[in-house]
Structure prediction request, 135 residues.
Amino acid sequence: MQITQEQFRRIEGCFPTQRGNVAISNLDVLNAILYVAENGCKWRALPKRFGRWHTVYTRMNRWAKAGVLDRVFTALQDEEILRIRLEAVSLDSTIVQVHPDGTGAEKKTARSPLDAREASGAPKFIWLPQMIGEL
Prediction:
C-alpha cells in the first residue's frame, strides 16, 4: 500500500499547507501511516526510508485530532485510489495500561484499626500475662 505522486496530486487538497522547514513531505507521512496500518508494526519499527518515526507519529496525531485523516481516507475511497475496510480491532494490555483502580474491583472503604485507634473503639482482643508456676 503506497501512494504515488500522481495519486497524491488528486487528494492533495485534503492536507494542510506545509509551512516552514519541513523535513518529511505529506506524501511520505501518508505512505508511512499506510505502512504501519498494513503491517501492524509499532511506530518505532517504521523503516528509516520514511524518516524519523516520532516526526511521522506527531504529524499523524495532529492530523487525526484536526480531522485531516478522515478527509484523506474518504478522498482515497472516493477517488478509488485505495480501498480500506476495518475488520477487527484488538487491544492488548501492553498498549493500554489501566490503573488498578480502573479494573472494576471494589475499593476498600473500611479503615484499618491501626490507622485510627480512637475511631476504631475497644480492642478486639485482650492479652493478659499469666503466671505458670510459683516463684
Remarks:
- The helical segments are 5-11, 26-39, 53-66, 68-78, 117-120.
- The CA atoms of residues 32 and 107 lie 44 Å apart.
